[in-house]
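Agenda item 2: EPU complex prediction
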Amino acid sequence: MKQIKIEGKRKLTGEIKISGSKNSAVALVPASLLSNGIVTIDNIPDISDIEALNEILSYLGAKVTREGSTMKIDATNIKNIEIPENISKKLRASYYFMGALLGKYKKVQMYFPGGCSIGERPINLHLSGFEALGAKVTNNGNCYLVEADELVGTNIYLDFASVGATINLMLAAVYAKGVTIIENAAKEPHIVNVATFLNQLGAKISGAGTSKIYIEGVEELTGGFHEVVPDYIEAGTYVIAGALCGQHLKISNLIPKHIESLITKLKDMNADLEIGEDYIIINQKENYIPVNIKTSPYPGFPTDLQQPFTVLLTQANGTSYVEENIWENRFMHIPYLKRMGAEIEIMGKKIYIQGKTDLVGKEVEATDLRAGAAMVLAGLIAEGTTKITAIEHVLRGYENIIEKLQNVGAKIELEEI
Ligand code: EPU
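Presented output:
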């Protein structure tokens, strides 16, 4: 087992280059199954979630090679067999095999996906969308069989703008007969990334990035090349690190527009930011103004940045609150922040943070991916040593986090326990 050890109170200076988006890459990789040729995807992050997807691809018989951040996937000869539970439960995004295999072979059999324990995480919207396209869903315990004689385009209204359901339904509908319309679709940058990828292979998708997506079924998707969009959650995490302890910290290779909601809140706090076309330079400042945030689907404040942002709110002078509206169980980092000296009260789906409090290094746990990121940020500004266990959650989603932070002056290391 490994843990992260941080000696806090170092200034971060230099440059951190943002990697390809986890939540985009984990959709593009299964989506490549839909192609009848060889697909090359560049800017794939080196994270354990991608390894888990590769395991599923290889299990199905796809040929996958990886050189640096470039991955080549040849899924032309795969066998459409049941995906066993021990590999599908390694990550949430294994659910994209449902849409991809159903779309291509009209049949998929697999177990309920895994992922961070941040809420109940149902997939009812995915399944009812598949049914609307003409599929029959049967489940036996945790195992789902979804099959159809044919898939026919239709209008699907999502009760909630679910990222996973929007992408899965695009995947299932690319080969469906006629036109599928997804209404109240999610608008996250990874939705656009997946639609552009599929279009490059020959799909006919329009409207991605808006709440109404049109998918006109096609006969064939060919091979092609695509690039993963920069990770706006990774970018936001390091921008917050800069607000906490940066000294001319440059976060590069990002798309500032993707984190506009974060930038607005940082400006409201009176943060010191310089925003370029594809970079942000940030300096730590004293006397931050408290702000309130409410998480909501893109372009609202992302739930995935709520936990890291809470650490910054402990450094604002006064009371702030965070309202979590996407996941029921995303305050698992709070007891650990309190152990480090933060003053935070949980009241239902809101937390109230009383700042400014000095943080002190303690032994804490990364209960989920973004909680782990929050612990790292807290460790960076804490007095003394912070040790973070269960860091496999962090390594699922942040490429080279230790090296990236060491390169800008953090005293952080991975150690065996
Ligand atoms: N929901 C349903 N039914 C469904 C699907 C979703 O009720 O069939 C509800 C969920 O319970 C939740 C809300 O809708 O309350 C949003 O869920 P969504 O489907 O958008 O989330 P997801 O696709 O499971 C992705 C990311 C998450 C991120 C959310 C929201 C991936 C692999 N995961 O999850 O990322 O928090 O969108 O933006 O793309 C992370 O990176 O740390 C992470 C958890």
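Discussion summary: Residues 23, 26, 92-93, 116, 118-126, 160, 162-165, 186, 303-304, 326-327, 369-370, 397 surround EPU (CB under 6 Å).
Owner for follow-up: CH.
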